[in-house]
Specification:
The longest helix is centred in the middle third of the chain and has 45 residues. A hairpin with a 2-residue loop joins strand 21 and strand 22. Helix content is 30%, strand content 44%. The chain has nine helices and 22 strands. The structure holds cholesteryl oleate. The site of cholesteryl oleate (2OB) has 33 residues, from helix 5, strand 17, strand 18, strand 19 and helix 8. Cholesteryl oleate binds next to helix 5, strand 17, strand 18, strand 19 and helix 8.
Length: 473
């Protein structure tokens, strides 16, 4: 873990959660705290006291459980360069358990057990700090206080002599305060770290598919200001046993504003290796045949279709195969993400009398992304198309065919590649549940060497359900 300033140079992606977003997530903090209370296991406690005439009274608190937990409200505050202050008030809970006791001398000993119930009203204050631990955001909530406003003890049947009840009231209320305070704060720390891991794992799953993944371990502790929490991640794409590295990232906090709820800053140094991995994994290979192929070439072009192409399209056994024959390059500017690709294309028929067509095209496009109606939209504007060499079987083709092919790549090739990429990327993100999020007015802003994705959102209920299932496992 590095200090934030030097971490910026090795950061491939940044996440900024502003105060309004934290406020939305805070709506359900009470459910997370509730999980902590209910998840807590309360140890049995033994005690003893010597009393005149009675002898030694030994007692133990067992099977302590929490019932009828309800949490009033939760307020929070982002404290600059410190942490997150959470104030949970009006926590009312009923603790139930059994007190077992024995008293008297060796001659005559009495042993009993009596069930008890304690009604309580508690306020909880947690001063959480976020730090960088083993590549993950870790939460330290040990600075945690419970204030008991009310602790009302009920002993079962209340048949015990007054002196015993008085003794136990003191012992049980003192012990419950001690045990609950210790356990709840410990449990909240556990739940807070389960939450941090859960978020990181969800993001890692989001950025992985098959053999391709992205290491988003944190490069430094998150920065907290009064208006946002910001975390810095490596963003190293990996494929099989190859992992990318960041040469010189360009993150600066001033590159993000604070008027949206959630920001993702994605460096080209993350996206380009990801494209390289996708290329190595054969994601840019496409076979097109049958009516799909014929429909493609119904596109109106200003150049006449050469005989080599029309003969191939007449045959029902023709297949168009295209693939990226070199590692695509990627560079983002405010105009969009410029992608350079070298596309190989083969049109072959199963009919041996029909000669095949093959060519290489050097293509450069500027892509702008957007996200609407739960779908990724890519707009690609051709910048430069060069047909490097075109052959009919082994015979090199002339300028007329090359001019046609140049227009075909521009008006058929690029749109068809984009028409595949959009649903493929949308499906990939939906496999990780993106479509379940209530994303409000997302914007994708291309900048110099990075892309900013900013949005508002509604509470991710599905995530909370997943998370609570995990804590209550
Ligand atoms: C006889 C003639 C036959 C013709 C047949 C010829 C066939 C081949 C010919 C030419 C080949 C054409 C080559 C075209 C190359 C196109 C390359 C091309 O399109 O490259 C793009 C690939 C995706 C991407 C990396 C990109 C840019 C932006 C990235 C996007 C920015 C934000 C997007 C987030 C997922 C948004 C999430 C929003 C949500 C609210 C959380 C993100 C990161 C998705 C990936 C894109 C560049």
């Amino acid at each position: 873990c590095l200090d934030p300033a030097s971490a910026y140079r090795f950061t491939g992606t940044v996440c900024r959660l502003t105060y309004p977003a934290a406020a939305v997530l805070n709506e359900k903090t009470t459910e997370v705290i509730q999980a902590a209370f209910q998840h807590a296991k309360y140890p049995s406690i033994q005690g003893g006291k010597s009393l005149p005439l009675i002898g030694k009274v030994e007692y133990g608190l067992h099977n302590l459980e929490i019932h009828n937990l309800s949490i009033g409200k939760s307020d929070f505050e982002l404290r600059e360069n410190d942490g997150i202050g959470i104030d949970i008030s009006n926590v009312s809970a009923t603790f139930k358990g059994t007190v077992k006791y024995g008293y008297g001398s060796w001659l005559l000993r009495v042993g009993q057990s009596v069930d008890f119930e304690i009604e309580s009203q508690i306020d909880l204050v947690i001063n959480s700090k976020l730090y960088c631990g083993k590549g993950r955001v870790a939460a330290d909530t040990s600075d945690c206080y419970l204030t008991f406003h009310k602790l009302k003890l009920f002993l079962q049947g209340d048949r015990e002599p007054g002196w015993l009840k008085r003794l136990f009231t003191e012992f049980i209320t003192f012990t419950v305060k001690l045990v609950v305070k210790g356990q709840i704060c410990k449990e909240i720390n556990t739940v807070a770290n389960i939450l941090a891991d859960f978020i990181q794992e969800t993001a890692e799953n989001f950025l992985s598919d098959g053999d391709i993944g992205v290491d988003i371990s944190v490069t430094s502790a998150p920065v907290i200001t009064s208006s946002y929490i910001e975390s810095y991640h490596k963003g190293l794409a990996h494929y099989h046993d190859t992992k990318a590295h960041i040469n010189e990232s360009v993150f600066n906090p001033a590159q993000l504003t604070q008027d949206r709820m959630l920001y993702f800053w994605i460096s080209d140094e993350l996206m380009e290796p990801l494209m390289t991995a996708a290329n190595a994994d054969g994601r840019f290979v496409r076979n097109i045949s049958g009516s799909e192929l014929k429909d493609l070439f119904k596109t109106e072009l200003s150049n006449p279709m050469p005989e080599v192409v029309s003969k191939l399209l007449v045959s029902d056994g023709t297949v168009l195969r295209t693939w990226s024959s070199s590692v695509p390059s990627l560079r983002t500017t405010p105009e969009g993400t410029t992608v350079g690709a070298n596309a190989a294309v083969e049109l072959t028929s199963t009919d041996p009398d029909i000669p095949s067509l093959s060519f290489d095209a050097d293509v450069k496009v500027i892509v702008r992304a957007s996200y609407a109606e739960k779908k990724l939209i890519l707009k690609a504007k051709p910048v430069q198309i060069s047909i490097l060499k075109a052959f009919q079987d082994a015979v090199q083709l002339g300028d007329t065919e090359v001019t046609y092919l140049t227009e075909a790549v521009e008006k058929i090739g690029i749109p068809v590649v984009i028409s595949y990429l959009e649903p493929a990327l949308t499906d990939l993100m939906d496999e990780q549940g993106l479509n379940l999020f209530d994303i409000i007015n997302p914007e994708v802003l291309p900048r110099d060497g990075y892309v900013v994705i900013q949005m508002d959102f509604g509470f991710p209920h599905h995530l909370l359900v997943e998370f609570l299932k995990r804590t209550l496992e």
